[in-house]
Amino acid sequence: MRLTILGCSGSVPGPGEPASGYLLEADGFLLGLEFGNGVFAELQKRRDPFDLDALVLSHLHPDHCADFSALTVLRRYHPAPPYDTTARRLPVHGPANAPVRLAMAYAPNETELAETDLSDVYEFHALSAEPVKIGPFEVTAIPVFHPTEAFGLRVRHGGRTLAYTGDTGPCDTLTDLVRDVDVLLAEASWTDAADRPPGVHLSGKQAGELARDAGVERLLITHVAPWSDRSAILAEARAVFPGATLVERGAVYDV
């Protein structure tokens, strides 16, 4: 699997830094993971958006899905698409309410919302705990601890497994998420402190502990908020998992 970082800013995009967005590629299949603010523009620098074969959204906060509306405009109104986007609908895997939530983000008023059905260009699938095949990937969604329905994701291909935490506070299900994983892509939005609100994000220390306890080969840290101290978060993670890396926009990793 090849992982490309389209955006890794947490909670909001930063100066010149898109919010969450990643590409996973194997066997010629291009899987999008998250589609936050600024990701659509970044995607166009590297690939034709029509090349996306499927998209997975871990949850529906704007920094993980805001640019979905732009993708919808492209798929509905591009004057010369390379294929019929209604005949070849894009599979979108996400929380159960994704079709309604994304339609509400797209439609500008109640009148248009009443007649907006994004299933003309998308094929929606609700994430669940059962592994599903998405192209050559086996994807397993595991519920995590966040203010809205949210999932961590295990993506397996060719005997290798990538785990992605999505957004989460510490919770028991993270143990299942990272079990026997090769590479962990973990959010770490802030430094460790006793007064952090529960069920929102991981600290650098917590991400490092998660990777250490699971015995992963590699820890990739993402989703650092623009107002957070990146170097302090990385130092926390490396104190317990020395090989931790902060991802950057445009970076490519072989998993």
Automatic annotation (TrEMBL):
InterPro entries: Metallo-B-lactamas, RibonucZ/Hydroxyglut_hydro. SUPFAM superfamilies: Metallo-hydrolase/oxidoreductase. It holds the Pfam family Lactamase_B_2. Residues 45-223 form the Metallo-beta-lactamase domain. PANTHER family: METALLO-HYDROLASE YHFI-RELATED, ZINC PHOSPHODIESTERASE ELAC PROTEIN 1. This is MBL fold metallo-hydrolase. It comes from Amycolatopsis deserti.
